[in-house]
């Protein structure tokens, strides 16, 4: 039997998942990575951290499952998007990677976004977290580094380079750079010129389910493996869509992680940059996906837990059943916001607090504020014709029954909770490895996980939460006017 390996490079660490050709999980290993924040708004990571984490995870799998690892025919890599990894002509890293949640390049993003044709070609607003404004920032503030740039790789593409020795990136990850013509699925000369970059500084593009190269002989020997095909891979959300079987129109998921994501698979290309939706290539040919992103989802609850001296589970365990919204309201803009505001400077707030307000009231308000932020994305997706009849609920926040019921009610859509098991980006990456190695077809292997339960909206609270959402929407302009 053939086996595949999925590598999911997250901001806080790398997860390696070993599966067989049927998709059954054989083993998994994790290794942490550190993030550096040298200045306010800066977020960087040394790519050497990724290699150390990869080596540690593979050594653990080799020790635990040597026979299965030896039978691996395909590897797929998923990674956090938008990171700028700069390499010189010898392939050496020039400076630490500037990560997705780094906001230093907000002025450069605004300049690029204002250039005629940029939104139309890229299909997206140029957000400060995207890759192109990061390079423009380096050009202005670190010209000695910019002058040495021979290649720019995203984090997943850097691991592909380490694994294969080839400069190769996939379409889904590259769509978040503001250098890709997302409709044509190719680098755009106009977008590159706008960002003072050249095509020869870009990696070769392949589909995520296509072969990017072959595992280097020295690595194969070290890990006890044979000839292994390395797939193009995917950005983390596209990989999660592969892991949850969200490939076709009408399929989607809501992810409650540090940030919040509402993603809908699309059969065609229908960008709407003005809405601050992200419109990206999918990891399989001929498909795209659109998503709204909020920057502080579970991070909002974690913040409240931290300042109140409680654990997040403590805060939510006392809430009981979902109730109509109270007077207290929370605007979850702790780190700025993407969809629908594209506002890196806005910050969060409580409103409606009184002497009678309790910590329980504030907890409900935080959970409601995140749910309303996700509804902002749902409304934007409706505007482009994406209307999934049900959504998978994934991410750490989906472990809270109260939050899941609340979000189902605010979005007015059933939420499907997967049964226990793997269904995230690591599984999606492994599935891409299987397809690239010729062991499976995408539609056959990228299926929906077993559903453990379905949470229906509480129709008796629909009107109350509609009113709460409209209060939420009305609060942003006032908050903006005083910041």
Automatic annotation (TrEMBL):
InterPro entries: ATPase_NBD, Carb_kinase_FGGY, Carb_kinase_FGGY_CS, FGGY_C, FGGY_Carb_Kinase, FGGY_N, Xylulokinase
Domain Carbohydrate kinase FGGY C-terminal: 253-437
Swiss-Prot/TrEMBL site (Important for activity) positions: 8
Binding sites annotated in the UniProt record for substrate: 81-82
Catalytic residues in the record: 236
A Pfam family assignment: FGGY_C
Domain of life: Bacteria
Segments forming domain Carbohydrate kinase FGGY N-terminal: 3-243
Record key words, sorted: ATP-binding, Carbohydrate metabolism, Kinase, Nucleotide-binding, Transferase, Xylose metabolism
A GO BP entry: xylulose catabolic process
Keyword Kinase among record annotations: yes
Single GO MF descriptor: D-xylulokinase activity
NCBIfam families: XylB
Family from the record: Belongs to the FGGY kinase family.
Annotated HAMAP family: XylB (MF_02220)
General function of this protein: Catalyzes the phosphorylation of D-xylulose to D-xylulose 5-phosphate.
Protein name in UniProt: Xylulose kinase
């Amino acid at each position: 039997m053939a086996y595949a390996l999925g590598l999911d490079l997250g901001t806080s660490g790398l997860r390696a998942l070993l599966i067989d050709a049927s998709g059954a999980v054989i083993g998994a290993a994790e290794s942490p990575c550190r993030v550096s924040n040298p200045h306010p708004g800066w977020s960087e990571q040394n790519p050497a951290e990724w290699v150390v984490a990869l080596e540690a995870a593979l050594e653990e799998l080799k020790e635990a499952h040597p026979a299965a690892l030896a039978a691996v025919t395909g590897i797929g890599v998923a990674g956090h998007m938008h990171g700028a990894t700069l390499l010189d002509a010898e392939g050496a890293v020039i400076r630490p990677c500037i990560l997705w949640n780094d906001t230093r390049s907000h002025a450069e993003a605004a300049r690029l976004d204002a250039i005629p044709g940029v939104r139309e070609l890229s299909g997206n607003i140029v957000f400060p977290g995207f890759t192109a404004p990061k390079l423009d920032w380096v050009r202005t503030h670190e010209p000695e580094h910019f002058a040495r740039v021979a290649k720019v790789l995203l984090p997943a593409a850097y691991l592909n380079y380490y694994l294969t020795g080839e400069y190769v990136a996939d379409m889904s990850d590259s769509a978040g750079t503001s250098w890709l013509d997302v409709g044509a699925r190719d680098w755009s000369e106009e977008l590159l010129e706008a960002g003072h970059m050249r095509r020869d500084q870009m990696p070769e593009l392949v589909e995520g389910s296509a072969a990017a190269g072959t595992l280097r002989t020295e690595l194969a020997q070290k890990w006890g493996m044979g000839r292994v095909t390395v797939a193009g891979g995917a950005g983390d959300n596209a990989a999660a869509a592969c892991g949850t079987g969200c490939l076709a129109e009408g399929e989607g998921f809501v992810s409650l992680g540090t940030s919040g994501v509402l993603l809908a698979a699309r059969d065609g290309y229908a960008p709407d940059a003005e809405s601050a939706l992200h419109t990206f290539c999918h990891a399989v040919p001929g498909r795209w996906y659109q998503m709204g992103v909020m920057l502080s989802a579970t991070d909002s609850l974690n913040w409240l837990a931290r300042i109140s001296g409680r654990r997040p589970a403590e805060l939510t365990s006392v809430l009981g059943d979902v109730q109509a919204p109270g007077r207290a309201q929370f605007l979850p803009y702790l780190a700025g916001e993407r969809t629908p505001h594209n506002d890196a400077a806005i910050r969060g707030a409580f409103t409606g607090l009184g002497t009678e307000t309790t910590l329980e009231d504030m907890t409900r308000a935080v959970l409601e504020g995140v749910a309303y932020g996700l509804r902002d994305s749902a409304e934007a997706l409706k505007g482009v014709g994406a209307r999934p009849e049900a959504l998978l609920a994934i991410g750490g926040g989906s472990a809270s029954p109260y939050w899941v019921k609340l979000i189902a009610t605010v979005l007015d859509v059933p939420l499907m909770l997967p049964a226990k098991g793997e269904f995230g980006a690591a599984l999606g990456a492994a599935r891409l490895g299987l397809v690239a190695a010729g062991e499976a077809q995408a539609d056959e292997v990228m299926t929906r996980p077993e559903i453990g339960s379905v949470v229906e909206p509480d129709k008796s609270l629909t009107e109350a939460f509609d009113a709460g959402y409209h209060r939420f929407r009305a609060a942003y302009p006032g908050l903006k006017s005083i910041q």
